[in-house]
Every structure is written in structure tokens, then in C-alpha cells.
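Q: My labmate handed me this sequence with no annotations at all. I'd like to see what the chain might look like in three dimensions before we decide whether it's worth expressing. Could you predict it?
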Amino acid sequence: MVMPPWKRVMRMKPGKFYQEKPIDLIIMDMLLSGTHGTDICRRLNRRETSTAPILMFSAHPNAKDACLAAGADDFISKPFEMNDLLNKIEFFVGKES
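A: Here is what I predict for the chain of 97 residues:
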């Protein structure tokens, strides 16, 4: 699979917030080891410096409502097609590099 030419991709450990460079999009699962993705989403939305949209995903049956209530900008149910995920990323990030 060829990755689109987005600015950068970073992997962050749950609970770690990086501020060195602006973040274009945050993608995370609702159920993370050691913490809940909706808790992280709420904390990110309270930060004045966080303007990045948040895309969450999960296979949990009630996850969409919980993620959107926590402040996620969008949600995708697992399992999902890779093209569906890439289309959502492109919507938020755009094609420009």
C-alpha cells in the first residue's frame, strides 16, 4: 500500500501529549491499554493548544455515541475498509502536503 503524501505520521503512547510540532489529525481507538480513548479525547478538547480534529474508532457496539459525546470529530466502526479510513483522513488533512 502506498501512503498518501501527508505531512507526517507519529505514533504516540496513550496518555502522552506531544507539543513539539503542530498535529494535523489525531486517530485513536476508544479502548486503549491502561486508559480509555474517550478520556484522552475529553482532555485534548479542554486544551487551548489542541485544535487537531480527533477521529476515533472501535468495534464496541455503543462506541460511536460515546466517542462523539467525548468530543471526537468523527468515528469509524471496526472492522473498516482501509479506503474508508483513508477517505476520512483525507477529509480532515487534505491532499496538500
